[in-house]
Design a protein that fits this description.
Layout: E1 2-8, H1 10-21, H2 27-34, H3 38-45, H4 56-66, E2 74-80
Antiparallel strand pairs: 1-2
Helix pairs in contact: 2-3
């Protein structure tokens, strides 16, 4: 069975920002600059997990930080989902 999921591309945008600025960017720095909690930043930096819920204020804060569109932070993928055992 195929499942459609949304994944974060925030790590990719932070990488682009770090290259443009010529420095490493820590999650702590992002948390301080955006006012978001570290676990929130960490969840958005983890590109392997599907996003279960998107809070628009979080999405806007991360997009502003990365100087990109909110849509630049998201990707839609279709993946095989494990079959559920009855």
């Amino acid at each position: 069975m195929v499942e459609t999921i949304i994944k974060s591309k925030f790590r990719e945008q932070v990488y682009k920002k770090s290259l443009a600025e010529g420095r490493d960017i820590s999650q702590e720095e992002i948390a301080q600059a955006t006012g978001l909690r570290r676990p929130t930043i960490s969840a958005w930096m983890n590109m392997k997990k599907a996003i279960k819920r998107i809070d628009s204020p979080v999405l806007v804060a991360l997009a502003k930080y990365a100087n990109c569109s909110p849509l630049d932070l998201l990707t839609v993928e279709e993946v095989e989902s494990p079959e559920k055992v009855a």
